[in-house]
Amino acid sequence: MSEEIAVIPGDGIGQEVVPVAVDVLDAVGDFEFVHADAGDAVKAETGTALPAETREAVEAADATLFGAAGETAADVILPLRSAVESFVNIRPARAYPGVDALRPETDVVFLRENTEGVYAGHEDDLSDDLSTLTRVVTSSASRRLAEFACEFVEAGRGPDGTEGFTVTHKANVMRKTDGRFRDAVVSVADERGVETDEELMDAFATRLPLYPDDYDVVVCPNLAGDVLSDLAAGLVGGLGLLPSANVGEERGLFEPVHGTAPDIAGQGVANPGATVLSAAMLLEFLGYDEDGQRVRDAVEGVLADGPRTPDLGGDATTEQVGDAIIDRL
Amino acid sequence: MSEEIAVIPGDGIGQEVVPVAVDVLDAVGDFEFVHADAGDAVKAETGTALPAETREAVEAADATLFGAAGETAADVILPLRSAVESFVNIRPARAYPGVDALRPETDVVFLRENTEGVYAGHEDDLSDDLSTLTRVVTSSASRRLAEFACEFVEAGRGPDGTEGFTVTHKANVMRKTDGRFRDAVVSVADERGVETDEELMDAFATRLPLYPDDYDVVVCPNLAGDVLSDLAAGLVGGLGLLPSANVGEERGLFEPVHGTAPDIAGQGVANPGATVLSAAMLLEFLGYDEDGQRVRDAVEGVLADGPRTPDLGGDATTEQVGDAIIDRL
Ligand SMILES: CC(C)[C@H](C(=O)O)[C@@H](O)C(=O)O
Ligand SMILES: CC(C)[C@H](C(=O)O)[C@@H](O)C(=O)O
């Protein structure tokens, strides 16, 4: 191992949790870390939330670990996703031991399209009264996502017992765009012999809280994936432990789903779990599956009986939890 | 009272629950009912899901009561919303006595923009690979919705204790369109002295299951309102009891949030609650607030100790529940 990893703590608790995840990566491997800045603080200093050096560091690295950004989140994260040419955002949502969850049965992995939909972002002010946004859907991006979803399921990377995936969309209203998405995804799965079922995104929002067991892997357009995975976060107890991976052909960007948590930033008590679990996804992305699993097991061990940060009812610091995770590796 | 009410049972359980709601309306007032067809069955017969006579009946009526449509739902409901020139879809989501709910504290009214967003529906296939949809947001529609929201809150029509409203959007990504929506809504509220807070729609999806008490009235763009109100439905036990009102300046269209329920259609055991509660919203729309409240009280009384349909654990028929509601009026 000597891959280069770009490290961008960002703002708020990103500054506190990312160093823990770096220590974890350092404990299991021999990586070269390249530190870079992005977010509100660097914007206040330099006028730009995403300096060119940061983008270049991300483009040069094999993988990037990102913490969080404040007001400038979209200005940072969207260009970084494209800097790693990410076509899928992987968002596992499951309950962890010892975390109060409304629906502990939830165990779902969202595979979110990561390049288009409303995020393609062509917007215009056509008059004083009217603005438009052009939502873009291509068969090629939809097919690429579907290929990934099929491989994901075939490789057994879904929750235990996963046999296929659910595709969500709103093709009854967005007939051409989401219709194209649905048709492309379903036809790739059919070609590969992977089972699919379909659910309208509104029905999915009703049903996930009621029947979380019905879902394993869920393939979504970009904004649907954003909203529905965040809904799942609410069912498993919040964002504190949810990791995510922005995966491209060559590079990846790994980030906790949570934000900067301004209410607790600077106190040294943020839960590093989501970021450490994102580092586990980074390890797997680089091919170190066993190390990824070791990190995951260590986090779960600490959650089950180690020290806990205040969000989980304990009084440990970020550092104490980090040390406990590393001790278990 | 001698207003004209168009009645469109539609498909599936719509055929069973709408007659109950008509009986209820007939019991409290003296309306002229005009029956009309729409949905899958009429499409199979005539080739069109929404015959011109039906649209005309809706345009001529003071209010319309609609049941449900199957595959053709979008072909029926979207043109009907525009036939009554509805600019807001009112969707109260709350738990009812005796209904198993994940989050019984939920008591939220969604005010959904009902004319634009992705529903404005300009879609194109630009190549074999690419389709676009033009999402449309105007300040005028957003302001009209906001005026309505302010009046709604000022008139005490929100849940008890409502002091303002939450506006949800995704203006960090859809900067011009949802930015315009947010700015228009907030500025109307500011002019009128109504309090607002803002929540990104993804954060709202995480937080509603966790902190349902934090929300009373929620003002949303069209698709956000669709998905987030359906999420709330999941938290209060499902769609069985949720009514909705599509309100325009002159006319309104009232419909249960649930669909045709093909699994139980034809058995005479569908829960008429959502449709009867939609009829209560119809009464209020026509100015018969007391009658609307009587109907609501009757439904709640039956839910608390009257006969129940199988979805609520009972073995009563639709007709028995309908009779029990009418007996209580
Ligand atoms: C910050 C924002 C642009 C981003 C998104 O919408 O993708 C965030 O909500 C997320 O899901 O990572
Ligand atoms: C049937 C469909 C077009 C409709 C919508 O998306 O508005 C439905 O989901 C609803 O919310 O009434």
UniProtKB/TrEMBL annotation, chains A, B:
GO molecular function ontology, one term from the record: isocitrate dehydrogenase (NAD+) activity
Q: Does the keyword Oxidoreductase apply?
A: yes
Q: Which residues form a coiled coil?
A: none
Give EC number(s), comma-separated: 1.1.1.85
What residue stretches are annotated with the Isopropylmalate dehydrogenase-like domain?
4-325
* Pfam families (alphabetical): Iso_dh
Keyword list (alphabetical) reads:
Oxidoreductase
Q: Extract the InterPro entries matched here.
A: IsoPropMal-DH-like_dom (IPR024084)
- The keyword Ribonucleoprotein is annotated on this UniProt entry: no
Example GO biological process: isocitrate metabolic process
Q: What class of enzyme is it?
A: oxidoreductase
Q: Which family does it belong to?
A: Belongs to the isocitrate and isopropylmalate dehydrogenases family.
Protein name (database record)? 3-isopropylmalate dehydrogenase
Q: Which gene encodes it?
A: leuB1
